[in-house]
Amino acid sequence: MENISVSVTSLFFFFIFFSLTKIQEVTSLSPDGQALLSLATSSPSLLSSWNPSTSTPCSWKGITCSPQSRVISLSIPDTFLNLTSLPPQLSSLTMLQLLNLSSTNLSGSIPPSFGQLSHLQLLDLSSNSLTGSIPNELGNLSSLQFLFLNSNRLTGTIPQQLSNLTSLEVLCLQDNLFNGSIPSQLGSLKSLQQFRIGGNPFLTGELPSQLGLLTNLTTFGAAATSLSGSIPSTFGNLVNLQTLALYDTEISGSIPSELGLCSELRNLYLHMNNLTGSIPHEL
């Protein structure tokens, strides 16, 4: 009986030692690494390639670090995360420049705390099942150049705070459930080259004339929406425009002859509208 008691006691202490060792492994991991582990809770395949016993996550799949071992890129598209919410812990990755979680089976809303990622240059959350509205706080991402939120279930209005993203080159918001109108303030995004807002059937209002200030724009897509009113003559200022897709909307009036000034225009889609008048010979 005494030998059995000793064996049970030894087993107990071994279990305690093993548990403390595992805790020590995780707690020895850098804060950036611990923040990343919040993504792996529902993804065994990801956890198997992310070793929490390392001191930094710099060797993990999809992770790139700075020379100071801070995480600057998290790119794991097409990974089955199956998360019902985006972990707010990711906001502690304060040196992050690239965040790509496209096609990872995410749901829930975009955390407002993502607006704290002040070094972020690319944010791609496309092709998921995200809901709720775009947080106004994303307008604080002054370094952001690429924003992909397309192909989700996002609702609400498009925040005018996005006009603060003066470095933005690509804005993809298509194939969601946004309502309201396109904020005229977006005309201040002078670096914008691609603006896609189509496939939002509840998007209403007129096309803001201020969009004619986006002289670097090469692609503007607003098809399959409920936009109305006329095509602004200011679109003739879009001298770099190559594709203009405004089909399947409630747009009316005539085609402005000023579109003939868009010398780079290659693709013009204006079918399935309420347009009237003659086709301008300037085209």
TrEMBL record:
Pfam families, A to Z: LRR_1, LRR_14, LRRNT_2
Domain Disease resistance R13L4/SHOC-2-like LRR: 82-173
Keyword Membrane: yes
Segment forming the signal sequence: 1-28
InterPro entries assigned: Leu-rich_rpt (IPR001611), Leu-rich_rpt_typical-subtyp (IPR003591), LRR_dom_sf (IPR032675), LRR_N_plant-typ (IPR013210), LRR_R13L4/SHOC2-like (IPR055414)
Sample GO molecular function, one term: kinase activity
All copies of domain Leucine-rich repeat-containing N-terminal plant-type, residue ranges: 30-66
Keywords associated with the record: Kinase, Leucine-rich repeat, Membrane, Receptor, Repeat, Signal, Transferase, Transmembrane, Transmembrane helix
UniProt keyword annotation of Metal-binding present: no
PANTHER family: SOMATIC EMBRYOGENESIS RECEPTOR KINASE 1
Protein name as annotated: LRR receptor-like kinase resistance protein
Provenance organism: Trifolium pratense
